[in-house]
Write a structure and sequence with these properties.
By secondary structure, the chain is α+β, with helices and mostly antiparallel strands. It has helices spanning about 1-20, 25-35, 40-45, 50-65, 85-95, 100; strands at about 40, 70-75, 75-80. It has one domain (about 1-90): Winged helix-like DNA-binding domain superfamily/Winged helix DNA-binding domain (Arc Repressor Mutant, subunit A).
Length: about 100
């Protein structure tokens, strides 16, 4: 029965990451961070047609899901992808059978 409990934890983690990626702006942020590796919040604000406060909320959502990390650098926060979490996300999607045949 313990394996079922572990599957529940993975299901919760997968659902959280999917929910975080459920908004086009957040997908754009992840894609942008994937291309440049790391950046400041202001850089992300510059590429999106959204207010800084809205971008901050999207970054918070991605960070809570574990998809990105944020390091405070003086008065600014520098963001980067959590590549380990993204790899875990990919493995979970593959395990669902969604990557090959759908």
């Amino acid at each position: 029965m313990e394996s079922d409990k572990n599957n529940d934890v993975d299901a919760e983690s997968l659902a959280s990451m999917c929910k975080a990626l459920g908004h086009p702006a957040r997908v754009m942020i992840v894609n942008y961070l994937n291309k440049i590796d790391r950046c400041l919040c202001g850089d992300i604000v510059d590429i999106l047609p959204l207010a800084q406060s809205t971008v901050s909320q999207h970054l918070k959502c991605l960070k809570e899901a574990g998809l990105i990390k944020g390091e405070v650098e003086g008065p600014k926060t520098c963001y980067c992808l959590d590549k380990e979490k993204l790899e875990k996300f990919t493995r979970m999607v593959v395990d669902l059978g969604l990557s090959g045949g759908v």
